[in-house]
Amino acid sequence: MATDRRDVIIIGGGFAGLAIAYQLAKRGADVLLLEAASLGSGTSGACAGRAQVSESHRDAHFEVVQAGLARLEALTVELDFDFEWRRLGNLMLIEHERHWQWWAEQVAFLAGRGLPAELLDRQSLQAAEPLLNADKFLGAAWCLEGHLNPLKLCHAFAAAARRRGAELRQHAPVIDIERQGRRVTAVRTARERFAADTVLVTAGAWSGQLLGRAGVSLPVQFTHAEAVISEPLPSLLHNHVGLADFYETIHNAARAVSVGVAQQQNGTLLVTEAVEMTPAIHRRNSPWGSPAIARDVLALFPRLARARIVRAWAAPSPFLPDEQPAIGWVPGVDNLFVATCFHLTITTIPVLSEWIAGLLLGEAGAPALAAFNPGRFETMTS
Ligand SMILES: Cc1cc2nc3c(=O)[nH]c(=O)nc-3n(C[C@H](O)[C@H](O)[C@H](O)COP(=O)(O)OP(=O)(O)OC[C@H]3O[C@@H](n4cnc5c(N)ncnc54)[C@H](O)[C@@H]3O)c2cc1C
User: What pLDDT band is residue 60 in, cutting at 50, 70 and 90?
Assistant: First the structure.
């Protein structure tokens, strides 16, 4: 089998792989991206499209979130693609006293750094979302975030990367990563074999199993997440509305529901998510997921009782044990780089992809990336 040679091979065509392909191609690199199915068909195309800010960590990560929000605004022009970007408020509904205190601090943190954010009591919450059944809530944490169409963002990066000369291959699953000692020597699909100066794994929830092909183990975990979308409806909601204890509810639970809902530009209501820990990645909807989502969203918005759900889907949602991304060179393999398990992906990827492209091409690394070094997990390279 003849070997085709590139500067960089990227495995995985979601937000991460596509944004990095664009940034590399913009800098003149010869890039090949291999995607197992269609572009954006992994977790990226299945997501809610929030450019999240509310859940920022109060550490080095916040710097990335703040810069990323500004970059998204600029990308609407730079990529020359309408990915339905808009600023949208996010309400985190607070039920318990113990969450009130945490969110009061979070809102003070965000507002202190210049982001529009405030704590609303029940009366102000009700005024902000008149259709919400606010009875059981103390109030909400509000923050001005962003919102977009996630598949369109993928296509925006893809089109811009192609214009700059990147080759993006779809339906080309990587079946092996060949390694000799400290170097990856080839990446194989069923039909072809490629070599590159650098191989980048951006395969989201699938990154763990792919790295395993190169004898590397990274503790990538994932939840199986389900979401639904309604028929188009007249204007009902003014913000994305979610629950303040979302991460507490879903993480490490065998099965859980925590709803978040936003009205899309076409009037549909996209509602996330019912989650389950599954031993392997699969994309099937469960018999309990959609009914549980419908039950919980109706408790929040009883007026939606007659709204029809037109589609439901499931996707893996990847994360690492410390809930920070893994971004960096894989210890012990000189030309293998991983970028996966992002927190607040849509908001952070515009900035992270620029920094990652710079690092891959030998520029000095941005200081914030040091915290995300995959070597922190004592990555086992056999
Ligand atoms: C229901 C839900 C709602 C969410 N809402 C939001 C939100 O509002 N905002 C937000 O920022 N984040 C959200 N997320 C999280 C977000 O979707 C993910 O963090 C993000 O999509 C990850 O992007 P990625 O590029 O790392 O992975 P992916 O998009 O999963 O891309 C990885 C790609 O690798 C491909 N691949 C896998 N194996 C191979 C192989 N062997 N060879 C070649 N290609 C391969 C896959 O097909 C896939 O396309 C949500 C997630 C879910 C499940």
Answer: confident
Matching residue, tokens 């499931």: 314
Nearest CA to ligand 1 atom 48: 42
CB contact set of 190 (below 8 Å; sequence gap of 6+): 173, 175
Q: Report the phi/psi class of residue 133: left, alpha or beta, with left for phi > 0 and alpha for psi in -120 to 50.
A: beta
- Strand 193-201 relative to strand 336-340, pairing: parallel
CA angle 54/55/57 to nearest 5° reads 120
> Closest ligand 1 atom to the C-alpha of 339?
26
In this prediction the pTM is 0.97
Give the pLDDT mean for 21-35: 98
Q: Evaluate: CB of 85 within 6 angstroms of ligand 1.
A: no
Q: Which CATH superfamily is domain 3-46+151-218+322-381 in?
A: FAD/NAD(P)-binding domain (3.50.50.60)
User: Of 369, 379, 364, which is closest to residue 339 (Cα–Cα)?
Assistant: 369
CATH 3.50.50.60 residue window(s) in the chain: 3-46+151-218+322-381
Q: Which amino acid, 275?
A: V
Amino acid sitting at position 190: A
pLDDT over 90, % of the chain:
92
pLDDT reading at 101 higher than 90: yes
3.30.70.270, 3.30.9.10, 3.90.1150.10, 3.30.1330.10: CATH of 86-147+221-319: 3.30.9.10
* Ligand 1 neighbourhood includes 218 CB (under 6 angstroms): no
Domain(s) labelled CATH 3.30.9.10 in the chain stretch across: 86-147+221-319
pLDDT in tens, 148-165: 999 999 999 999 999 999
d(CA 137, CA 92): 10
Beta bridge partners of 92: 141, 242
Residue 202 CB less than 6 A away from ligand 1: yes
Distance (Å) from CA 12 to ligand 1 centroid = 9
pLDDT single digits (tens) 192-226: 999 999 999 999 999 999 999 999 999 999 999 99
